[in-house]
Design goal:
Elements: H1 9-14, H2 21-27, E1 33-39, E2 42-47, H3 50-58, H4 75-84, H5 106-117, H6 122-129, H7 133-145
Antiparallel strand pairs: 1-2
Helix pairs in contact: 5-6, 5-7, 6-7
Length: 149
């Protein structure tokens, strides 16, 4: 309490904070909420505190829609067997005079593909990047056609 008022005796039995507008405005602290994708039908929402931050960093939570968080490779493969595989290099596409510059930047493409790997839908990605859903879909399709996904 910072407004100088006393709590109502009935309220003081259960609570130790004031509900006056002045106290709330001065002392209220916002919470950071994080969404953790736990399966394809739901996400778990948690308050991002020190413990949750450590758990996320340790890999306790991973998106079951993917092998591991942020990648499309199963966790067992990511541990080492995938690194030992040799992939054939894709043949470079010929550049034609009619090739048109893409209407998105390289950084927008990287972010869109990262969000896509994390399981976000094109409309959610479009909202985050302030692009149209069509453009985000084109970025994803373009990456697939080049073998990037």
């Amino acid at each position: 309490m910072t407004c100088g008022c006393e709590l109502h005796p009935e309220r003081a039995k259960k609570y130790d904070y004031c509900m006056s507008g002045a106290c709330q405005e001065k002392n209220a602290k916002g919470l950071t909420i994080v969404a953790v994708g736990v399966n394809k039908s739901a996400e778990q929402y948690m308050i991002l505190d020190e413990r949750t931050r450590d758990e996320l960093a340790s890999g306790k939570y991973h998106d079951q829609r993917r092998g591991s968080f942020g990648t499309s490779v199963p966790a067992a493969e990511a541990a080492g067997t995938a690194a030992n595989r040799v992939r054939p290099r894709p043949r470079p596409r010929p550049v034609t005079p009619s090739a048109v510059r893409q209407p998105w930047s390289r950084s927008q493409e990287k972010l869109a593909l990262l969000y896509n790997e994390q399981g976000l839908r094109p409309d959610e990605i479009a909202g985050k990047l302030r692009l149209s859903t069509y453009t985000v879909t084109q970025i994803i399709l373009n990456a697939r056609s080049r073998g990037k996904l």
